[in-house]
Amino acid sequence: MFETDLFSNVTFQMVDRERIKVYYRELKNKSVKTVELDQYCDIPTVTKVRESLLGVVSAKEFVKLISDGDGNLSRGIFFENVRDFQGMNQVNQEIYDTIRDECRSDRFCLLNNGVTIVARDLLKTGKVFRLTDFQIVNGCQTSNILYSARNLVSDAVHLPVRIIVTDDIDVISEIVYANNRQTTVLQEAFHSLTPFHKDLEEYYRACRGEDKRPLLYYERRSKQYSGQDVRPVDVITPSAQIKSFIAVFLEEPHSCDEYYGQSLSKFQGAMFVDGHSFAPYHTSALIWNLVEKKYRGGGLRGIQKRFRPHLALLIRRALGGEDLPNMLSAKKMEAYCASLRRELLHPESFEPALRSAIQSVKNAIDSEASGFRSLHQKKAFTRALCGSAQERGPNSTKSEDDSHLNEEKEYFEDPYLLSGKVERYNPKRGFGFIRSEGNNKLYFHISSVNDKPRSGEPLPGQRVYFYEEFSTPLNVARKVSRSP
Fold this sequence. Notes:
15 strands, five-stranded mixed β-sheet, 484 residues, 36% helix, alpha+beta, 16 helices
């Protein structure tokens, strides 16, 4: 490169994996915006903080700051928040009501705690501030309400703002923690701010299916996927992530009945550890999700949901083997999970493993003399269960008890395909309701019935197969047919 005479100097710097992830996140969330403050004052010098100030900004000016070039809300600037927008709860409704009340809107600056902005660089020109790579670390709810009410905001509405310029990770984390401790946020929610969880969220996005969409979405921050083109059934909460990992890879499904804050404390040092591969976390969540979809679709009749963690563990052992790679051996663990994930996504391998797991749970329950209600919490039950599953194997002969699982083979080949019966139908108005096997009531319209020309209009009591539509506030069935 130097010999091309295009560069006066050429240097090389070694960059490890962690630094590459930091660079990627910085580029992804990179932003440069200007904002004009009505009034401001500098805060005295603070250790590891280059500059900080308190100010007041008009709500209209603030809305410009949090909007992108197309006028949409810049969601990336809330990446460091503990929670995403929580919707129109009581507090947020009160914020909205204050904005639209002409008699009270000028009090907004006094009634609201304001927002805290952390930026990597700040350039002042009079009262105009140029912010580089900034994040709103506190005030996500206020920001979202102001954006949603942007057409109602008057010149009288102002907002307190605090701007802090630093690139010290520890200082930023401390600021986020301290600001959010002043509101009702559970202690364990702050765990999501660690680099491990942020990287895990990106890993989820990178694991994609044949349709090029992520297989699952990790909801690191509460409700961060609300209003987006994401199926709620594909969202994994921190609670589900913790339970699935404990059950599938720590092999303690009997511990999944605890509150997830207790689980974090109990298994500290065993999960979310720096150096762990992200693959087992995603893979355990995938198994958990597939089992959950079977419950929702009515495909696990006769097995109470309290045994879901045990089914997930048995499926992993059936498809991946009993022996696990060391959690700190990233390459071996990633190879193990990649192979396991391929098996999970193929019905030809997943369904036999599921049927075997169901029968093993039933056998283990039947062998217990008493204490059925607390079986799922007993370590001895888990040991007995794994022993019986090992003897049975995923390809063993099915008993009469689980023969119903194969009555409709096609029903299991698509994890999104649901089954139910027509509860009622109004032929004059062309709509009706379906009661799914999971006992959910779904609306359907005759236009969504695929086999009407062949089978006629649906009749009450008829078995139907369908997909659930998640993009509407109602439970709606689409692609309804009498055969799977």
